[in-house]
Amino acid sequence: MRTLIINGRVIDPSQEIDGQRDILIEGAHIQGIYPGGKGPKADNTIDASGCIVIPGLVDLHTHLREPGFEHKETIATGTMAALKGGFTSVCCMPNTDPVNDTEAVTEYIIEKAFKEGACAVYPVGSITKGQKGESLTEFGALRKSGCIAFSDDGKPVTDSLIMRRALEYSKIFDVPVISHCEDPQLSRGGAMNEGVMSTTLGLRGIPNAAEEIMVARDIFLCELTWSRLHIAHVSTAGSVRLIREAKANGINVTAETCPHYFSLNDHALESYNTNLKVNPPIRTEKDVEAIKQGLKDGTIDVIATDHAPHHADEKNREFDAAPPGISGLETAFALGLQLVDQGVIDLKQLIAKMSLTPSKIIKIKKGTLNAGADADIAIIDPEKKFTVDPARFSSKGKNTPFKGWQLKGTVEKTVFMGKISEWA
Amino acid sequence: MDNKNITFKSKDLLGIKDLSQEEISLILDTASGFKDVLERDIKKVPPLRGKTVANLFFEPSTRTRTSFELAAKRLSADVVNFSVPTSSVVKGETLKDTALTIQALGADFVVIRHSSSGVPHMLSKILDISIINAGDGANEHPTQALLDLFTIRSHKKKIEGLSVAIIGDIAHSRVALSNIYALTRLGAEVRVVCPPTLMPAGIGELGVKTFGSIEEGIKDTDVIMTLRLQLERQSKGFLPSLEEYFTLYGLTAGRLKLAKKDAMVMHPGPMNRGVEISSEVADGPQSVILEQVTNGLAVRMAVLYLLGGVKK
Amino acid sequence: MSKEILNSKGLERALTRIAHEIIEKNKGTDNLCLVGIQKGGVLLAKRLASQIEAIESGHIEVGALDITLYRDDLNTKAEQPVVKATDIPFSITDKTVILVDDVLFTGRSIRAAMDALIDFGRPARIQLAVLIDRGHRELPIKADYAGKNIPTSFNDLVEVHLKEDNSDDRVVLLNEQ
Fold this sequence. Notes:
The structure holds 3 protein chains of 3 kinds. By secondary structure, chain B is an alpha/beta fold. Helices cover 38% and strands 14% of the residues of chain B. In chain B, the strands form 2 sheets. A 5-stranded parallel sheet of chain B has the order 7-6-5-8-9. Chain B has a 4-stranded parallel sheet with strand order 2-1-3-4, sandwiched between helices. The longest helix of chain B is centred in the last third of the chain and has 19 residues, at 289-307. Chain C has one domain (2-174): Rossmann fold, CATH 3.40.50. In chain C, 26% of the residues lie in helices and 28% in strands.
């Protein structure tokens, strides 16, 4: 079975392609890219007029919630949400129940994803047993059963010695350690960013320093150990500054931010909408500007979603008591396109930050439209407007602060391993 | 003063932040009428006959709850009190369900006190009936600020141009925040005085002057508001000791001399004598602390009366 | 369409007559006090008091009564009426209270006023003096003293203008058209 995608603007950062091309898919793989209108005969064609045809997006930071929290999300619904958002690969964080700290859990996730998943799932193993921050998990066994990185996401590794050991030990397997940077003493009891807004809302604040202290620590540990450190969900100007300086000094650190850290500032919380509660918190406009600058100059390598679905009953609570998190897979690319509209980054950079670069960090052969690569493709109309409506999300998590936002950039079709899904 | 064309925009009183200067004046003027009622032999008037006020207190507060209860009863409303130990909240019922239950029981007003900021705002979206914020977390305590304004106005005739010092645990005080909004909106100069560990982030952006020294902070002020210091602040590391707090920030007769001769001394109660204020000052001639309590009734009656007229 | 019912002279004459009637009916001014209903009744009560004082020489106490909180239509109005001052700085117990209002219409204000008054004490008797009685009673209430009875239709408006409010003394009937 051969399918030819025609009339689209193909953008593939891995080959520096941006122009009218035809893409031939055969089975689960890309057969080749041809000049526009020059593609060979195929069994069927997909007309991508007006659309960009790009590598399927890769999310470094997803919470699929299974096993243990199936009322929030399952591997089936989470991967379907991913596909709908143009993602064909997601890395799922280990804070499940049980924690993904053993081969058994990793194997369960991979098997479940194979049976019920709509896209590729790459498990992230926990750094410490039970995410308790005390003793390392069996990186070797976890790596062998399919983990592509290690993180205690959601819980910072507070013991610097454990973090040092994790970074050192990860070198055996050449995998990144993803760090959730937070000093839990400094952030204790906090519900939002510390500043004039937390004061006027009477909510306890989390200072920027709670993140930056740990970013600084981990950068020094990375330098000490010559390992691969990836900083998760960067939200502050100070973190951007630290990472920029570390990169300038040749330290092997990469970093991600999430759409909510460049799309919102803390003034949005005025409504006490618990869907705006996220960790790290939505920061000030000054931080938003610094995040954008970091994306522009390459300090921040990746845009990840930190897709964190919750049940409505859990969010429909006192702000202090509501769990942090945003259901992000189905709005991420459209929010990223706003950066292109604002002139922060260009379309090719956006696509690279959401496909090629994350693939390189976890060393998977995705994020490219090279001949022979997996046929993972997103076909997106970058001009088509839509209103964010969580009721139409495939994710079980309807917890989005972007409800009602007018965005552009609809995912029209997603191709995963040659299989075409169409979103009317 | 003619308030004929001013009406309440909202069915709820969630905070001073949302009120216009005119709305604040309307409440204070209306409260004057109720202050008169409270001075009569028969202190009960009929405007809320047949209405029900539900006091929903998730934090213990005998004073505020009693004040609202009495205010409602003076207006001939029926009052029901839900407090945490007696309600089904302890059985794991969600806040939302508790609120809906109270509405289904036919309450017309919910007076809510909760330790989490924003809870009244959340209820206001869920319920059709009037919500009155009786204190939410470290956010607002609007009726306390209104009664403070009423008390100041009855002594100083106007608020505009006055210099008011607020001393104490600003970071955790909903009384401070509501008063800052109210006083600045009516044109007073507001000074906040506290140790830096209790000074909230970005407070200067609200149009107040900040002072770390009580002597500088209260110099030449017309009004001094002392706040209750929650005694657990010490154990949480905000302060080394209560004794040191009193030494550095306690309002004493000696310090009071730095303010204007006729400066008023206020406290929202309950007081920690010898922690934030000396007994000599609390019981002294410049203290209006008990008057604040009486005025609280009049102000809460005014709020209930005015909200009772907003079409839902 | 508007029509003048009383001019300044006529209004003054009506008040003088009422003052005389009050004295006559009560056989003097012993134990007498006047309470005006906010807002128009208060000004009229003050004028009546000075007329009575001029005739009988002596002091008549005058109070102001706001009936807002006793109205029977609070639940049906779109907004709460403004609460005005009630100022009765004397005891009404065992007194003869002359309740004064500008216009007597449905009688509901008077019912509210009597309820309010009784919360202040137990008067020996209450009498009612009004400048205009325009009919259309909805309650069994009748004025003891009326300046002028005029026929109106229900939707007409009767406006009483007084010089204390920076206007000429006059009473005007506004037709519903």
